[in-house]
Amino acid sequence: MDRKSWNLLVYKVPAQPSTQRVYVWRKLKGLGALYLQQSVCLLPQREDLQSHLKELKADITAGGGEADLFTIGIDEPEQNVMLVERFQQQSDQEYQEFLGQCRDLHSELSEERKISNLTFAELEENEAELTKLRSWLPKIRDRDLFDAPKYSQATEALKACELDFQLFSQQIYQAQGIDSESL
What we know:
By secondary structure, the protein is an alpha+beta fold.
């Protein structure tokens, strides 16, 4: 990785109303942008990302803001490596939060087993939590532009949650006197 190309977006949006500022921030975070400082974001130079950035630049200027989009090349390998590491750290922070939510689900299921609260209401509540985890991980992965190390740990944690929930479901059906195999 000698020379790497990057998209650099520098923007300014009106302070009021805050809706445009929040909109821009959400769009950039959704793309996986790395903030170098306030209103200065970096993304790898890829066609799909560049088209999103061009649309966002147009949205910013249409809303009365200013935006410049540059494609820059960095010749120093160390600088490129450092930027990739920062992108990975950013994604790993999200994966870490995801892993915490997986631990919370296991704890919740364990607690319900401990107090023998094996009801369909608990099944439904915890299924909703598992559904959130299932939809959240692909969103993090979409923003993970450089294959952060914690991704594999997160996928394994989701599988473990699914297995734990499956066991919890079977325990509820048994507690309710229902044969889960016939469902």
